[in-house]
Amino acid sequence: MAGPLTLYDKIIDRHRIMSLGAGVQGREERLLLYVDRTVLNEYTSPQAFSGLREAGRKVWRPQAALGVVDHVNSTAANRTDAVEDKGAQGQIDYFARNGRDFGIKMFDVLDPRQGIEHVVLPELGWVLPGMVIAAGDSHTTTYGAFGVVGFGIGTSDIEHLLATQTLPYTRLKRMRARFEGPLPVGVTAKDLIMTLIRKIGADGAAGHALEFAGEAIDALEVEGRMTICNMAVECGARVALMAADEKVFAYIAGRPRSPSGAMLAEAQKTWADMRTDKGAVFDREIVIQAAQVAPMVSWGTSPDQAGTIDDVVPDPEAVAADKRAGVVRALEYMDLAPGTPLSDIRIDRAFIGSCTNARLSDLRDAARVLRGRRVAPGVRAMISPGSSSVRREAEAEGLDRVFVEAGFEWRQSGCSMCLAMNDDVLAPGERCASSTNRNFEGRQGTGGRTHLMSPAMVAAAAVTGRLTDVRALKLLKA
Ligand SMILES: CC(C)[C@H](C(=O)O)[C@@H](O)C(=O)O
Ligand code: SF4
Asked: Which amino acids does the record list as binding [4Fe-4S] cluster (predicted)?
């Protein structure tokens, strides 16, 4: 394609094998796409493998796939004693068998590299700028932080991908969100993305590849950028992207699976072009002033039903007519009265975990708030590091002691209470401050009530027993 290009189009063009149908402006809408890598989990891959077995097919490029157990496993503190329920054990066993039969490396729960797939891949150095990574999980968008087109696919597409290393693909529209100006003190990547989601709505980026840019994004470390790309799927984006810069190159260097030596130098030359050209045109642009972003919490059952911590629960009568019924229903489920200050909402549980916010920097943020404090009476707090390696690194710097002394349960790694698919669940009616990305009805357990926020905000809520502005704890610089 001629003329200035968006990062998205550059990557898609480089992975285009052939057209599957012409579209507008000389661009094909449908094409056959080469996929560089995939990650498999025990929950969404079984039918794909069964399909391959039935058709007598092999995996075309087994070395381009990695598998990791994350969704259904227990996070019991002592891993070797963990007893999985029968269903979960069956999924874990079938997963291991598929790895053996099809020649794909799978990390089981006892593997030191185990963790949530979207935490594990980057820390292995397996996510490299300019790649296309498709996988059976919607939060595959996380890899956008590396200048990677990452997207979630369904079971039949996983099967197609494993058999051919390609996917039939529909080119997306392009959207850019710019966060202008520096990030205010006490505001995190989670607050930036929650602000955008509230502004454009849970389907605001539907059909688009969403690129993030601006001073506040450039200033973030790679882990914070992953938080944003991870959660971009909650405003409907199919792909999230950021330019690959020096921070990304430094993050990748020296990791177990990343290129090194001359190969790394050669790769970096290509990676330097993994950014949108000046003058490239987006179908839609949104600008947010970072100075106006404050710590966010969700009050409803959709990620866009959220406000800043100094807001109040909205009055359904005061919201747009097309949103009213949704707000009424959400407030009923969440058992919240209009006009209640969000900072008056009391919690029963606090959870730090998930592929959104359980990396080392997230744990450090939370520990900074918890150091020398105790979880409020009546609150049960737990933390599940994003990967076994994050858990070890945190232990090496004594963060586990900070959490345990504050009254948190220090769990093993997995999706844990991000979704109710293992033994970490809310009881009906329990209210949880959570560092996760989804607050749908029943997401953390039937009848459970989720309030999304950053890990530091979860820590603040845990010690006061109610949703709390972390900036008021005056501990941010400690
Ligand atoms: C289980 C899986 C299909 C799902 C996803 O695709 O995102 C899960 O990881 C989630 O976060 O809801
Ligand atoms: S941690 Fe949560 S969001 Fe991430 S893959 Fe697991 S269930 Fe999905």
From this structure: 355, 415, 418
* Confidence (pLDDT) at 290: 98
Q: Looking at residue 232, what DSSP letter applies? A: G
Tokens of 396: 């090496």
Distance 139 CA to ligand 1 centre (A): 7
Confidence of residue 406 (pLDDT cuts 50, 70, 90): very high
Mean pLDDT of the chain: 96
State the greatest distance between any 2 C-alpha atoms of the chain, in Å, as a whole number: 64
pLDDT at 476 over 50: no
What the block records as the tokens of 177 is 């969100």
Count CA atoms closer than 13 A to 403's CA, side-chain side. 29
Output the CA 25–ligand 2 centroid distance in Å: 37
Position of tokens 């690959």? 244
Q: At what angle do helices 222-231 and 189-200 cross, to 10 degrees?
A: 20
Residues 119 and 41: beta-carbon distance below 8 Å: no
132-147 pLDDT per residue, tens:
999 999 999 999 999 9
Give the C-alpha separation, 143 to 149, whole Å: 7
CA atoms lying within 13 Å on the CB side of residue 306: 34
Cβ atoms of residues 214 and 10 within 8 Å = no
Is the CB of 416 inside a 6 Å radius of any atom of ligand 1? no
User: What number does the ligand 2 atom closest to the CA of 353 have?
Assistant: 1
Relative to the alpha carbon of 414, which ligand is closest?
Answer: 2
Report the 10 Å Cβ neighbour count for 344. Answer: 11
Two tokens, residue 236:
């409907």
Which positions ≥6 away from 135 have C-beta within 8 Å? 38, 39, 40, 117, 150, 152, 153, 158
Would you tell me how many other CB atoms lie within 10 Å of the CB of residue 86? Answer: 8
Pick the closest to residue 376 from 408, 351, 400, 344 (CA basis): 408
Distance between CA atoms of residues 97 and 465, nearest Å: 45
CA pair distance 266, 346, nearest whole angstrom: 54
Burial environment of residue 81 by CB neighbours within 10 A (0 to 12, 13 to 18, 19 or more) = exposed
Q: Is 385:415 a contact under the CB 8 Å cutoff?
A: no
pLDDT digits (tens, 9 = 90+) for 260-284: 999 999 999 999 999 999 999 999 9
- What one-character DSSP code corresponds to residue 256? T
User: What is the Å distance from ligand 2's center to 406 Cα?
Assistant: 26
